[in-house]
Request: fold
Amino acid sequence: MGSLWLYLTFLLLDSSTTYMSSMIVYTYYPYALPLAMWTISLIKFTMLGSVSRLMEGQAWTSSSFLYPLTLCLSPPLYQTLRMYVTSHPMELYCGLYHSLLSHLILLLACLLWDLVSPHVLPKESSEEDKSGQQTSRKNFKRLLRYSKPDWCPLSGAFIFLVLALLSEMSIPYYMGRIIDILSSNYKESEFSVAIVYVSIFSIASSLLAGCRGGLFVFSMARLTQRLRRFLFRSFMKQEISFFETTKTGELTSRLSQDTALVSRSIAGNVNIAFRMLVKCIGVYAFMFSLSWQLTLLTFISSPITWLIQKFYNHYHQPLVQKVQDSIARSSDIAKEILESVKTVHSFAAMEDEAKRYEESLQETYRLQYLRDLVRALYVLAIKLTNFCSQIIMLLYGQTLIQNGYITTGKMVSFILYQMDSGDYIMGLVRMLSEITHSAGAAQKVFQYLDREPLVSTSGTYRPDQLRGCFEFRNVTFSYPSRQDSPALKNVSFKLIPGSVTALVGRSGSGKTTCVSLLQRFYDPDSGKILLDGKPLDQYEHRYLHSKVALVAQEPVLFSGSVKDNIGYGLQNVPEEQLKEAARNANAESFIMGMEKGYDTEIGGNGGQLGAGQKQRIAIARALARKPKLLILDEASSSLDAGTEYEIQRSLQRIEGLAVLIIAHRLRTVREVDQILVLDEGRLAECGTHEELMQRQGVYYDLQGHILQNGE
Reply:
C-alpha cells in the first residue's frame, strides 16, 4: 500500500520532469540523452527518497532507500544496458503507447513490492489494521459455517448467477457484430442470426437472474432466522446481572437489525460481490479479445480506485458501527420512556423526555450524515476516476481505428463493455467493503453468542427425593455494579422444611438479595448456600428452579388462558395438578365464575383480572411446580384478611413446604415460626415475634417506627 503512494508521487515527478528532459535532449542531442535520463532519474530518486523517509517518520532504512532507487533508476539502467548489448539507441518515452507500457510495468512492480515487503505504514496503525482484518476474516468464515445448512439453495443460486452473467455479457458482443454487419457488406442471414442471439441471451439472462435472486433471498431469510434463534437462546441463558447492566434497547437492536445486516453479508453481499467478480472476469476477457491495447489502458484507474477504497474503508467502517450503536441507544431510550409513561405523566416530564429522545435522534442523524457524506465523496471520486479513464480510452481508440488495429463495430462493443466495467469494479470493491462492514456488525452479535454466563448452569445433580432444607452459611455478596458496597455480610440462617420464616428489615437491608441468591440469579462472593447439604451450583438448573418458587408483589402474567398461566414453564403436567394448585391459592372460586373457567383469556399481563386475582393466580402458578421453598414477596398485599388467612392455612397443609415471607407489613409475620431481621446487610436478630420484642433490638425499633407512622 505504501509503495502505491510512492508510485503516485513518482507519476507527479515524472510528468513534471518530462519537459525538462526533452529540453536537454533537443539542446544537446545526440549526446545528452543518456545524461538527461540519468540526471533526471537521480533528481527524482532524491525527491522520492525524501518522501519515503517522511512517510516512515524515521531515518533512512532499506525500504526507504531501495524502493525509490529501483523505481527511479531502473528505466535508464535498462536502456543503457540495452544500448551497449544490442546497440539499440536510447529513447525518450513521450508517446502514449510507450508511456503506457512503461508505467504499467512500474505499477505491476509496485504491487509486487507490496506483496513481498509491506511498506511505510506506522507500526501501531499497521498492527491495528491487521488485527481488524483478521477479526473480519474470522467473522466472515464463521458466517459461512452458519450458512452451511443453506448450501443447496446457495449452490443453485451461484449456478444461476454464472449462467445469467454469461448470457448478459454476450449481448454487447453481438451488438458490435450487428454494427459491423450494417456498416460493411450487409448480409441478411448473418444479421438475422445476430438478432436471434441477442434476443435469446436477453430473455435467458432475465429468467436466470430471477431464479438467482429468489434463491439468494430465500437463503438470506433462513440465515437471519437462524442467527436470531441462536442469539435469543444466548440471551436467555445469561445471568440476571447481564440484563441489569445491558440495556434492553441494545439487545433488541442486535436481535432485529444487526442479525439482518449480518445475514446480508452472505446471501446478499456475497451474491453481488460474486456477480461483480464474474462480470469483471467476463468483461475483461471480451475486452482483451477485442483490443489488448485498450484493455491495458483501462488498468490505469485500478490503483487509483484501490487507494480511494482504502481511504473509504478507513473512515466509513467506524461510522457504520457508531450509527448502529446510536440506533440501539435511541431504541433503548424510547422503550424506557414508553414503559414508564405513567411516571412521566405524573411528574409532568413529557417535554423533558421528548427532548431527551430528540437529542438521541439528533446524534444518530449527525452520524448518519457523516457516514453518507463519506459515501458521497467516495462515489464522486470513483466516478471522476472512471470518467477520466474513459476520455483517455476514447482518444487512444480513435488512433487505433485510424491505424486499422480495430473496427468500428469492435470499438462500439469495447465501449459498451468498458462503460460497465468501471461500475463492475467499483461494485466489486464496494461489496468487498460491505462484507467487511457486515463482518464488523457481526462482531457484536458474535460477542453475545460466545458470551458465557457468569453464573454457571453446568450442575447435574437432581435427586429423586429432596428434603428441602436451605441454608445460608457465612454468605457475603456484592452486586457486580457495586463491588465496593457489599449487600450481604457474613449472613447465616436455615429454612427448615414445613416451617414459615419471615425476612424483615429496612429498605436496602438485603432482603431482595437473599431472594435472588436463593433463586441462584447470582453466586455468593464467599460462603455457601446449601440445599440438603449440597451447594446450589451442583444442582441441575431446571431442577433447582422447580424446587424454588417466587411470588412477587406485582406478579407478571402472560397473555393466554388461566390454565396456561398456572402451568407456565411446565410440560405435560396433569390438569388436576393445576386445579389443586388453584384451590390451595384460594383461586378456584373466582376462576370457575368466569365465562370459560380455566380456559378464559386474561389479556396481556392479566389485564382482565383484578390485583388480588392476579396475586392468587401467581401463587397457584408457584404451587403447581410442587416446590420445596415458596418465597412470598408481599404476595398477599392486595388480598383481604379472610382470603390471606385461607391461603396461609392451605400452605401450612402442604407437607415439607418451607415458606419464606418477605415482609414490609410486620403485622403479617407475628404467627410465623422464625423471624430473620436484616440490618445493613447483616443478620441482626433471629427468633419469634415475642422473643424479638422482649430483646428490644432492631425488630423492636421497626415495630415502634411502624406504630409511630401508623403503618
In short: The chain has three domains: 2-116, 123-222+238-450, 470-554+627-708. Residues 25-29, 94-101, 115-126, 706-711 have pLDDT under 50 and may be disordered. The CA atoms of residues 346 and 525 lie 40 Å apart. Residues 2-116 form one domain.
